[in-house]
Amino acid sequence: MLLRHTPKEVKDRKALTINPAKTCQPIGAMYAALGIHGCLPHSHGSQGCCSYHRSTLTRHYKEPVMAGTSSFTEGASVFGGQSNLLQSFNNLFSIYDPDIVAVHTTCLSETIGDDVSQITQKAIDEGKIPAGKHVIYASTPSYVGSHVTGFSNMCASIAKYFPEKQDYELDQVNILPGWVEPSDMREIKRLMSEMHVPFVMFPDTSGVLDAPQTGFHQFYPKGGASVPDLKRSGASSFTFALGKFSSEAAGEELRKKCDVPYEVMEVPIGINATDRFLMKVSEVSGCPVPESINDERGRVVDIITDMQQYLHGKKVALFGDPDILIPLTEFLLAMDMKPVHIVSGTPGKYFMERMKEIMGDDFETGNVKNGPRADMFLLHQWIKNEPVDLIIGNTYGKYIARDENIPFVRMGFPILDRIGHSYFPVTGYAGAMRILDKMLGAIMDQMDREAPEEKFELVM
Amino acid sequence: MEAAILKDRENQIFIKEQSQGEIACEKSSLAGSVSQRACVFCGSRVVLYPVADALHIVHGPIGCASFTWDIRGSLSSGPELHRLSFSTDLREMDVIQGGEKKLERAITELGELHKPSAVFVYATCIAGIIGDDIAAVCKRTAEKLGVPVLPVHSEGFKGTKKDGYKAACDALAKIVGTGDISGIPKVSINILGEFNLAGEAWMIEDYYRRMGVEVVSVMTGDGRIGKISKAHGVSLNVVQCSGSLTYLAEHMEEKYGIPYIRVSYFGIEDQSRALYDVADFFSFNPELRTKAEEIVREEISVIMPRIQYYREKLAGKKAAVYVGGAFKAFSLIKALRLIDMSVVIAGSQTGNKNDYKQLEELCDPGTVILDDSNPLELSRFVLEKKADLFIGGVKERPIAYKLGIGFCDHNHERKIALAGYEGMINFYKEVYSSVMSPVWKFAPRNNRRKSHE
Ligand code: SF4
Ligand code: SF4
After folding, report:
1. Which of A38, A6, A25, A118 is nearest to A345 (CA)?
2. Among residues 213-232 of chain A, which lie with CB inside 8 Å of chain B?
3. Tens digit of pLDDT for each residue in B370-410?
4. Does the Cβ of B60 fall within 6 Å of ligand 2?
5. Whose CA is nearest to atom 8 of ligand 1?
């Protein structure tokens, strides 16, 4: 009973977060930067943050994660980190030879007020950035937003820097996939190819954070959006910004800089959101949704039909990032399940508004909270007061699942104790099938495990 | 890409009997290098983390707390408050207006909720920069709650992990000396610098108990505030040579006149030494030495035949060792030698001159000795020296695997005990299973090598 310290009675807390359902901006920026080919993320601050962010990404992906650090000392935190950053550029380019350095700030460099854009300009003026190399940067103070905000900020920086405005339009669309796994990016790319729609996707961590074993340690694995592609994205006909929290800012930057129109759509998780996404892609590109994809959809519906008696009315608690929770909730409702407790540490009014729309009457009877003190402690208290049949969220949910003996499906970031998330998608119809497989597996395993002898049956 | 070496780092790489002069170390990492090092806060957090009946409140933005939430696997036989994550989750307004009020409230709310035996309040970079008077808040809330509320001055930028150890020791020093020590026998010790990963402290405590030595406190493995408060009642401090608790041992020597010895619990030789040294300290009671010898004989006779098995399989294999503290490297080299494995790369994140001198003496000629290294150097030397095994921490694991060689975690990610006699077998077993795994046959680099032969 690890969480025996959690009391059932929910009291209003003012000043503290217990077992957070979020983390800080720079790790999101680091993840986004890794989705550009040949890009080395660089953390402007002290070593600790960078080390934590690399460790956590390493644990989640089981892949080497490289990033530089400005290695602040006390001196730097008093006099500013300019000389550290300038020296960093020197060293990064001469030793690690990246095509791009993606700098993000930390709480510390933000608070002392380092102006990274000015320092970068100085580096360019002083010839510290070798010809043909790029430096982009994002401001990512951790005391604002969450890791999702950091991801969004870095995506916006990429969109601000690389795309080039053209007076012609290319027969292609941009896809900003939002904070999803390499497997999801791969899946979305597959759907686009299946539809014969030319596209540019960024960031794209497939091939980077699910790299094959080669016997060598590649500093820059072969995946990731390429610089030429990024440049070309300025001439695309349309941008799909998937996930309001993670992609809207980048979509808007692209529009401002290159006049590419965009639409914010939900990450295609579950049937409805995938339908909407594919229809819109079809509408924009003029390419119909092919039979092969319709068949995939049909298979999802078939599974739900077959298994609906096990899904009906099941109460679910979920937690994680808003862009994932929104379509996931919609999917659960579509399967006649009941999402009753939902928390997201990431702040933002839109989350509650959209949840209200999706959930209708269920919103009033359920517990939904995001932002300050929407944490795992609160989620656990809610579950104690109204037990659920299933929990969906990142690895940290395992404590509650174990203590309360509730089936648990891992989805979200971080997943530190299982594999699969980087290889099998949760997006698209294929992803919907995987979610179904995992949920049904978890629920039915528990039924099997706990069924009294006389009710234990071969066929369920 | 060709792995070059940073010019400024050249003298932090030393090849025994090839390099001139001595290795440079104790430098802060070069800005722009992909360092494997962490921060002061990290050092404090890992040392204090296992104290299970205390609240650990991280005063700062959410990241520092969320990244250190239950990552250490220090087992507790009772309460598990230490495994939860408490944060003041500072927001923009707090950074502007100061976070003292928020902190005070957090301590009070949590204190009332959990009734802890003590509260540790960690200052992170931001808390330091915005100038919150954490000590004052701790003082006020301690009075209110009636338990010690201790500031841990662990602002990340103020140095390295080592400075964090010191901050943690300062906090512990305030608890030591507050408990009742009547009834503590003369033959008693504290074990310092042992964190009970995978239950290691329990194994070691058990050896000492079998010798007839009372262990008053372990710091901080399976730690309790009550036991720590009595720590000044012992005759001897036994410091696991991780270096992390040496400050406290020094402090206790000065303040309470308690001497300390350094030991290591890793490797047969060192583990046995750790028992003998304690026995010899209490030389007025020769019985202890006899008992210690008995234990050593007994334990070794059990594991030796098994070690023989691993030696036969692993002899001649080469290892790369890159760990946090240099002491760990010493023990590892000896342990690998026992099964006729050689160490071709040896490095640490935080070694000092003395450490590296010792390391050099211990190593074979041609061994690459590294200070504060980075993935590029590490992978370059692994290939150059044809290592079969890498021993390191979480960030090194996937690098080793990508290179197609075995890996053993000697940091805090491990789930099996490596200390003591039983730990040795666990260690060899892990090395064996990793180095000999059939998966390496599939690694393209190895395949290629084969077809060239
Ligand atoms: S360096 Fe500072 S901000 Fe970063 S993890 Fe350490 S204490 Fe936290
Ligand atoms: S919250 Fe700030 S200081 Fe802490 S790890 Fe994140 S960036 Fe670093």
Report:
1. A25
2. 213-220
3. 888 888 889 999 999 999 999 998 888 999 999 999 999 88
4. yes
5. B64
CATH number of the A170-211+221-289 domain: 3.40.50.1980
Which ligand has its closest atom nearest to the C-alpha of B157?
Answer: 1
| Residue ranges, CATH 3.40.50.1980, chain A | 25-144, 170-211+221-289, 292-453
pLDDT tens digits, residue range A172-205?
999 999 999 999 999 999 999 999 999 999 999 9
Q: Per the CB < 8 Å rule, is B40 touching A48? A: yes
On the question of pLDDT at B58 being above 70, the answer is yes
Q: How far away, in angstroms, is B206 Cα from ligand 2 center?
A: 40
pLDDT in tens, B124-145: 989 988 999 999 999 999 999 9
Q: What is the CATH number of domain A292-453?
A: 3.40.50.1980
Write the CB contacts of A311 (distance below 8 Å, at least 6 apart in sequence).
Answer: A304, A335, A336, A337, A439, A440
Q: What is the pLDDT of residue B451?
A: 46
Got the DSSP string for A182-250?
Answer: HHHHHHHHHHHHHTT--EEESS--TTTTTPPP-SS--SS-S-SB-HHHHHHGGG-SEEEEE-HHHHHHH
ipTM score here? 0.92
Is the shortest distance between the CB of A109 and ligand 1 below 6 Å? Answer: no
Name the DSSP letter for residue B263: E
Query: Ligand 2 centroid to B376 CA: how many Å?
Result: 25
**Phi and psi dihedrals of A75, rounded to 5?**
-55, -50
Cα–Cα distance measured from residue A151 to residue B42, given in angstroms and rounded to the nearest whole number: 24
- Quick check: A310 pLDDT over 70? yes
In this structure, the number of other CB atoms found within 10 A of the CB of residue B31 comes to 27
B124 CB less than 6 Å from ligand 1?
A: yes
Residue to probe by mutation, ligand 1, list B37, B39, B68, most atoms within 8 Å of CB = B39
Tell me the CA–centroid distance for residue A51 and ligand 1, in Å.
Answer: 9
Give all domains of chain B, ordered by start, each with its CATH number. 7-24+315-414 (3.40.50.1980), 40-174 (3.40.50.1980), 188-301 (3.40.50.1980)
Query: DSSP H helical segments within A335-366, as ranges?
Result: 349-359, 361-365
Cβ–Cβ gap B445/A214 under 8 Å = yes
C-alpha to C-alpha distance for B58 and B60, rounded to whole angstroms: 6
Q: Confidence band (pLDDT; 50, 70, 90) for B452?
A: very low
* Cis amide leading into A203 (omega within 30): yes
- A67: contact with B, CB 8 A cutoff: yes
Beta bridge partners of A341: A317, A367
Q: Is B125 in the pocket of ligand 1 (CB under 6 A)?
A: yes
Q: Which residues of B touch A55 (CB under 8 A)?
A: 67, 394-395
- Least Cα distance to A186 among A208, A216, A154 occurs for A208
Is A46's C-beta closer than 6 angstroms to any atom of ligand 1? yes
Determine the average pLDDT of the residues in B284-308: 96
Report CA(A347)–ligand 1 centroid distance (Å). Answer: 22
- B124 C-alpha to ligand 1 centroid (Å): 6
Q: Is the CB of A80 inside 8 Å of chain B's CB atoms?
A: no
Q: Which helix (H) or strand (E) holds A86?
A: helix A82-91
* Closest residue by CA, ligand 2 atom 2: A107
CATH number for the region A25-144 comes to: 3.40.50.1980
pLDDT digit string, tens, across residues A234-276: 999 999 999 999 999 999 999 999 999 999 999 999 999 999 9
Token pair in block for residue B328 = 């760990």
> Do A22 and B40 count as a contact with CB atoms less than 8 A apart?
no
Check if A24 has its Cβ closer than 6 Å to any atom of ligand 2.
yes
pLDDT(B453) > 50: no
Whole-angstrom CA distances from B358 to A192, A325, B22 are 60, 55, 12
